[in-house]
Amino acid sequence: DEECVDKAKKALENSWQVLNSGDWKLEKQTPEGDTVHSRVLPNIGKIFKLAMLDDYTDITYQVTREVAGGFISSRDFINLRHYAVKDGQHIAAGTGMEHPDFPANIKYIRGENGPNCWVMSPIPKDDKQCTFQWLLNTNLHGWLPQYAVDSALITALTDYIGYIRAYASKLRQEGEL
């Protein structure tokens, strides 16, 4: 597990350096203002990056793995996200969208996100904690009973906050928080 974590941290650092250095060649610009750039790295080859619409807005393409032993198959999502600080609260909000660079793929059922957001609010007089709220609105589409979808989403929410707490605890122990 430690080896995987170290490898993931190194990947983050390497990716950050690559993203913010070097000469990128413009490959495509969409009418919506999205840009795709490329660059060739020694011993790696050609890499691509999708630039954000601005410093606080981006479009993501995500694919989920199948869950419940394949009962819920893989889904793909296209999301438009925006980040801001509002009334001292950090907010990441988004919604699903269509995008010409990400047509439907027969391998996946196209899911759709409605209004979604994460809000991290400071707790007065406690700089080591915050409140966390997650507004989740997801339509998985396909032939799934709603009770199974609801159960899976509730599990995803509670698992995720558990992962956040564990990660924050680890950061506190390492003196990074």
What layout of secondary structure does this protein have?
Layout: H1 2-19, E1 25-29, E2 35-41, E3 45-51, E4 57-63, E5 75-86, E6 89-96, E7 109-110, E8 112-113, E9 116-123, E10 126-135, E11 138-139, H2 146-173
Parallel strand pairs: 5-7
Antiparallel strand pairs: 1-2, 2-3, 4-5, 5-6, 6-9, 8-11, 9-10
Task: Write a brief structural summary.
Helix content is 26%, strand content 40%. By secondary structure, it is of the alpha+beta class.
What would you say this structure looks like, in words?
It is built from 2 helices and 11 strands. The strands form 3 sheets. Strands 4, 5, 6, 7, 9 and 10 form a 6-stranded mixed sheet that branches. A 3-stranded antiparallel sheet has the order 1-2-3, with no helix packed on it. The protein has a two-stranded antiparallel ribbon with strand order 8-11. It is α+β, with helices and mostly antiparallel strands. The longest helix has 28 residues, at 146-173. The model has no long low-confidence stretch (mean pLDDT 84). It comes from Timema podura. This is START domain-containing protein.
Supply the number of helical segments: 2
Q: Could you give the distance between the termini?
A: 22 Å
Low-confidence runs (pLDDT<50, min 5 residues)?
none
The best one-word shape is globular
Could you list some keywords that capture this structure?
26% helix; START domain-containing protein; 3-stranded antiparallel beta sheet; alpha+beta; 6-stranded mixed beta sheet; 177 residues; single chain
